[in-house]
Design goal:
This protein is 72% helix and 0% strand. Helix 1 runs parallel beside helix 5 and helix 5 runs antiparallel to helix 6. The chain has 242 residues and is an all-alpha fold. The chain has one domain. The longest helix has 28 residues.
Amino acid sequence: MPGNLYIYLILFFGVLLSGSVIFFIKKESEKLLKLLLSFSGAFLFAISTLSLIPEIYSVETPLNPGIFILTGFLIQVLLDFLTKGIEHGHSHIHSHENKIFPLAIMIGLCIHSFLEGMPLVDTFDKEVQHTLLIGIVIHNIPISILLMTLFLSSGMKKNSALLLLILFAFITPAGSLTSYLINDNIVGNLSQYFNYIMALVVGVFLHVSTSILFETSENHQYNIQKFITVILGALAAFLTLL
C-alpha cells in the first residue's frame, strides 16, 4: 500500500464533505462563499510564492522551470473554456443551459484536479508536500460546493449528484497515485520530471488565485471584508511554513 494513503483519504473526504455542505447552507450564503474563495485564492498565491516556487528553483534541471510555470498558467486558461471559470468562483450558466448536465465543466475540473494531485509524491520535501496538500484541500472546498450547486441546478437528483461528487473526489488522489506508480516502477531519478509537474501546477495555481483575487468582488473593487479575508489567507499560508 502506498505511503501516501493518508493523503488520498484527506483529498477524498475533503471534497466529499465540502460538496455535501450544499444540503445544509442557504442560498443567501453566496457572500460567504465569495469570501471563502478569496481566502483560498490568497492562500494559493501565498504558498506558491513563499514555498512552491522556491522549492522548484532549488532543484537543478536542464530546462528553465519558468517555462512549465507559464505552460501551467496557459493550460488553465484553456481549461477555463471547459469549466467556465468554476475554479475561481464563476458559478453562473446561461438560462438555456440550466437543465443541461455540465459535462464539459466536469471534464475540465477532472483534468484540473488530476494535475493538482500529481506533485503529491515523496520526491519533494515533506513540508512542501504537506503545504501543497493543505492548499489543494482549501482550494477544493469552494469548488466542491459550486460543483454540487451546478449539479442540482441542472435538475439532477440528489443521489446522482452525490455519486458524481464521489467520482470527482477520486480524481486528485488518482493523480497522486499515478505519480506514485510511475516513480515506483520506473528505474532512474525522476525528481527533475516531478519538479516540472510541480511547476505546471504552480502555473495553474497562479492563474486560479489571481483570477479569484481580481474577479470575486463587484466592479473589481476591494471591500474591507474581502481585504481582511485576503490578509488572513496569506497569513495562514505563512503560518504553515513555520
